[in-house]
Write a structure and sequence with these properties.
GO molecular function: tRNA-uridine aminocarboxypropyltransferase activity
CATH architecture: 3-Layer(aba) Sandwich
Mean pLDDT: 86
Family: Belongs to the TDD superfamily. DTWD2 family.
CATH topology: Alpha/beta knot
Order of helices and strands: EHEHEEEHHEHHH
Number of domains: 1
Pfam family, one: DTW
Organism: Pseudomonas moorei
Keywords: S-adenosyl-L-methionine, Transferase, tRNA processing
Largest sheet: 6 strands, parallel
Distance between the termini: 38 Å
Length: 197
């Protein structure tokens, strides 16, 4: 028998995260472009970020027909959160008078690169990066590179850089509960064997 799912957070009703999801305002607008393969992922952190931020939008797809309209938000300068040789550190944008439309591709690195390849307008955006040395709380997955963060962690760090001294740490509450739940489900011994140390 299929488990009943929460229509908002998409978690099984028995593990609904909605009570932990805050509703935070931000000057920065966050546009999450999610690869379809991430939608049913157990740790869909992009969805949690979109639910927790009042000035955020999540769109699922590979080719985004509405991209010109989505990127042309009056009063915002669009920036792509993605590494590149010429990417500006986000803190360089923090002093700007004009708020940022932070475009965040969500998927594995390979899928995120594919989104950029399939959407030349996206690839052409000026890029910004997070400060190095971020440590992920995502204890269930080996990071592909040092400092790799989950989507929600990257958004929290980006917003805290752009809107200091405002804290967006509350956004991580459902994410942390999700991880704790997964660790509990696998059992401490299995977790230590596969992810400990």
């Amino acid at each position: 028998m299929p488990r009943i799912q929460c229509s908002r957070c998409l978690r099984p009703q028995s593990h609904c995260l909605c009570p932990l999801i805050p509703r935070l305002d931000s000057r920065t607008r966050v546009l999450l472009l999610q690869h379809p393969s991430e939608v049913n992922h157990a740790l869909n952190t992009a969805r949690l970020a979109a639910l927790g931020l009042s000035n955020a939008e999540l769109i699922v797809g590979e080719v985004f027909e509405d991209l010109p309209a989505l990127l042309n938000q009056p009063g915002y300068q669009a920036r792509l959160l993605f590494p590149a040789e010429d990417a500006l550190p986000l803190r360089a944008c923090a002093a700007s008078d004009e708020p940022i439309l932070l475009v965040v591709p969500d998927g594995t690195w390979r899928k995120a690169r594919k989104l950029l390849h399939l959407n030349p307008l996206l690839a052409a955006l000026p890029r910004v990066t997070l400060a190095e040395g971020g440590v992920s709380r995502y204890r269930l997955r080996k990071a592909p590179v040092p400092g790799a963060l989950s989507t929600i962690e990257a958004i929290v760090q980006a917003l805290e850089t752009l809107e200091a001294p405002t804290s967006f740490g509350q956004l991580l509450r459902p994410f942390e509960a999700l991880i704790e739940g997964q660790i509990a489900a696998m059992g401490e011994d299995t977790y230590q064997k596969n992810h400990g140390g």
